[in-house]
Design brief:
It is a single chain. This protein is of the alpha/beta class. It has two domains: 386 residues, TIM Barrel; 90 residues, no CATH class. It has 21 helices and 16 strands. The radius of gyration is 24 Å and the shape is globular. The protein starts with a helix and ends in a 12-residue tail after the last helix. 42% of the residues are buried. Bound molecules: zinc ion.
Length: 536
């Protein structure tokens, strides 16, 4: 019964979006609050079947000549990552006037490079020293500053690296510092400004870890197949995007907010050939209805302070690992720091009604009032539940994420359809986000609309838009909807707005060509998905 309601909600969610307006032809839809009856009731009787005629295109293995060529090129370059890096390095060297510096630059990450060897040896030494009780702080400091600066260098943040290095007392006597600062100076010269209107934004939901559980034939299967992406697919997607030169940026790089509340265009400076993009993940709450369906259960910190996901095995034991997007992307960026611009990662669009990040932090779990059935069942099954501890642990995870480059946005507290709901409803909802979510995740200036359901048409917002006026008054300056086109960026002196593309089963199955700038669906598609993916 409960399952049935959930899948119905999933499907209906997306249906609501299809009808939500010209700007929003399709949303990945969202796992939805079963309590939001009005959302379901407000559905239109019919909605246009957007992009419905493309079934023949489905996951076509046929490729255009261009794609084939691209694949061959790729195959040549990427059999091994090292080869690909080398290929890139030599390519870049050719294009660069400063051949020597550029080579040095690209090679500095490889262990074969003598310079790097020196550093890694030093690092080992430091570890030893640290372990010893008489650790010398001077040594430790030196390595950590150099490492920090090296990461900044890899992430195109040359100014900061130079500032950090030159800020060291012993700069003039430290050859490593001076060499790296010089490399930064050179690299800085070759940066180009990237056009903000050509920055795409992709989004995911929580990733499916165990496909046999998500696609087990129960009533949730269809919704997961449409709206979710598997761990395997995500790994291939980011690898492909990395190889194409994509680099993670934030909307906060694309626009900045001035003291008087007005908004200014940002400036993104990247090496020629790099392609900035924004990534977000919606509904990272591990909603109750997803229990047992092959998803992670919550995010935690491991003994090194890194964010990992927990997964509950069949026998009830708990595994800790890379079972969802956040730890996977963290690890990918540790291995490929140049996938991130100035340390940026992704944005998590968060509701509050089931808590956040897998922690049951909503006030209902404390008061016991207005509980949904699955919430009540959770409390019944967890008699030792400690609300304060839950909030405390969620806050620790959120703090660690923010410190490592992640950002949080409001997805509304109750997964509201902001197009259909009244300004008063949105106000009541936002007050809950501010009261029960913001204390954990921090205050945010960004809204990522649930269902992609925006508060205005493509022409833009104005202050006579009551919903915009309210959100703006509460400190929201960044707004994201869902839009299937490659780019939708709107920057005015009042707000930043961007469309997001769903990289899910539905889009991959029905419109693979719409994703060819990012990856080749035939290479990414998880064959454990049942086909056809249900139509919306
Ligand atoms: Zn959502």
């Amino acid at each position: 019964m409960k399952k049935r309601a959930a899948v119905l909600a999933l499907i209906l969610c997306t249906a609501a979006v299809l009808a939500a307006g010209n700007l929003l032809p399709f949303s990945g839809g969202d796992p939805k609050n079963s309590g939001q009856k009005t959302e379901v009731e407000s559905l239109p009787e019919s909605f246009s079947q957007e992009e419905s005629g493309n079934k023949e295109d489905t996951v076509s293995t046929e490729k255009t000549e261009e794609e084939k060529k691209e694949d061959t090129d790729k195959a040549e370059n990427t059999e091994e990552t090292e080869d690909s890096e080398e290929a890139k390095a030599s390519e870049e060297a050719e294009n660069s006037e400063e051949t020597k510096d550029s080579e040095k630059t690209e090679n500095s990450e490889e262990t074969e490079n003598p310079e790097e060897k020196k550093d890694s040896e030093k690092a080992e030494d430091t570890e030893k020293t640290e372990n010893a009780e008489d650790a010398e702080n001077a040594d430790k400091k030196e390595v950590s500053v150099l490492e920090q600066a090296q990461t900044m260098y890899a992430q195109y943040n040359y100014d900061e690296a130079i500032l950090l290095l030159k800020g060291q007392e012993d700069f003039e006597s430290n050859q490593d510092y001076m060499d790296l600062a010089a490399k930064c100076q050179v690299a800085r010269e070759s940066l180009v400004e990237y056009p903000l209107e050509k920055i795409t934004h992709v989004f995911f939901h929580t990733l499916i870890y165990d496909t046999s559980k998500a696609f087990d034939g129960d009533s949730d299967e269809g919704g997961y197949n449409q709206m979710m992406t598997t761990v395997d697919e995500f790994n291939k997607i980011i690898q492909s995007m990395y190889e194409k030169g994509y680099v993670l940026v934030s909307p906060h790089d694309m626009a900045t907010v001035n003291e008087d509340g007005t908004v200014s265009r940002g400036k993104i400076m990247v090496p020629e050939g790099k392609i900035p993009f924004v990534l977000s993940q919606d509904d990272v709450s591990y909603y109750h209805y997803m229990d047992g369906d092959g998803f992670a259960s919550r995010l935690v910190l491991d003994e090194n302070g890194q964010v990992k996901a927990e997964y509950i095995e069949d026998d009830g034991s708990v595994s800790v690992g890379n079972y969802d997007l956040v730890p996977i992307l963290d690890e990918f960026i540790r291995e490929h720091p140049d996938f991130s611009y100035h340390g940026r990662k992704g944005i998590l669009a968060m509701t509050g009604y089931n808590g956040v990040l897998g922690y049951r932090t909503d006030i209902a779990y404390k008061t016991g009032e207005n509980l949904q059935d699955d919430q009540r069942a959770f409390l019944d099954n967890n008699p030792d539940f400690d609300y304060e501890k839950e909030v405390e642990e969620a806050t620790k995870v959120a703090d660690a994420m923010k410190a490592s480059g992640w950002e949080f946005a409001s997805h509304t507290w109750g997964h509201m359809n902001a197009t259909d709901r009244s300004a008063q409803d949105l106000k009541t909802d936002n007050e809950k986000w501010e009261a029960y979510v913001a204390p954990i995740l921090g205050k945010t200036d960004m809204i990522i609309f649930a269902f992609g359901a925006d508060i205005g048409g493509w022409e833009g917002y104005s202050m006579d838009n009551e919903k915009f006026a309210y959100y703006k008054s509460r400190g929201y300056d960044y707004y994201c909807n869902v839009d299937s086109s490659q780019y939708f960026v709107q920057i005015t002196d009042q707000y930043f707005r961007q469309g997001r593309r769903n990289l899910d089963g539905y889009r991959m199955y029905y419109n693979p060509d719409m994703l060819s700038d990012l990856f080749d669906v035939s290479q990414v598609w998880d064959t454990s998905r049942p086909t056809p993916v249900p139509e919306m």
